[in-house]
Amino acid sequence: MKEENNKIKVQFIDNSNSQTIGVAALMAEQLPETFSVSTTMHIRDDDWSVEEAIPENSMDFIKSKSLILKMRKVEKMNPNDIWFTLPTISNEFPLTVATAKQTEYDIQIHEDDYRQNEFLNMSAFPLIEQEFISIKDIWENHSKQSDKYTLFEKCHVRKIIGSPNLTINFSKLKTVLNCNAVGQVLINGSTLKNGFTVKTKNTTYFGIVNNNIVTELCIAQWNENTTSEILEINKTFNMLFVNWYHCDIIKND
Questions:
Q1: Please, is 144 exposed, middle or buried when counting C-beta atoms within 10 Å of its C-beta (0-12, 13-18, 19+)?
Q2: DSSP one-letter code for 34
Q3: SS3 of residue 161 by DSSP
């Protein structure tokens, strides 16, 4: 009887229609300490995501012996129905650190856009061609056009190309681009480790710099006048530029 008095009456409600799924008497140790973080529960062979808990913390529902959970069934997708918005992504994941004080020069990018448009050493050309084979196959055999976008049934992870390992003098790069203001690169609420961004009137560049040496250099935004800047960078630092999405290469003849 004493154990019954210690149990908490939990009412499970389907938040999509406000109907009660069920009611159960549970011990406190069967419930999380708080529902302030994302919580999923398994009920009747289905997974349910808790969208609201009343009250939210164990201290309160242990005291009141009552808990209301407003939930929504987690819809399981058929893997065959999943399509990608990009035909390729980098195998190297961007390393991030806690964000310092932001500046007016900072930019935000999505992690999937990391190294999608990048400068590489001329020696990487044969490896680029190998990566292109897989990407072009996805375009030709595993893509479809939606109302606004091209969707891809597969996504090629670029493993052959590896890290760029550039050796660009950062001070010289800023001189070539005629820009001095440097910002941070924000990714999913964090900051790209040793990252930087610089902007010209045509283009937003970003990358990684260590001890004034740029080891990665990418483009986030550009316009029709960016090509001339790319050619100047290629010429000055003996590099080429790759747009992985379209399998395009810009290199000086």
A1: exposed
A2: B
A3: coil
SS3 78: coil
Residues near 137 by beta carbon (within 8 Å), at least 6 away in sequence: none
Cα separation, 210 vs 122, whole angstroms: 21
Evaluate if pTM is beyond 0.85. Answer: no
Split at pLDDT 50, 70, 90, the class of 2 is: very low
Q: For residue 127, give the 3-state DSSP assignment.
A: helix
Q: 60: part of which helix (H) or strand (E)? A: helix 58-64
Both structure tokens of 104 = 């007016």
Identify the DSSP state of 203.
-
d(CA 205, CA 222): 9
Phi, psi of 27 (to 5 degrees): -75, 155
What is the distance between the alpha carbons of residues 85 and 241, in angstroms, rounded to a whole number?
Answer: 22
CB neighbour class for 188 (10 Å; exposed up to 12, middle 13-18, buried from 19): exposed
Look at residue 65 and tell me whether its pLDDT is greater than 70. Answer: yes
Between CA 248 and CA 242 the distance in angstroms is 6
With 0-12 CB in 10 A as exposed, 13-18 as middle and 19+ as buried, what is 177? middle
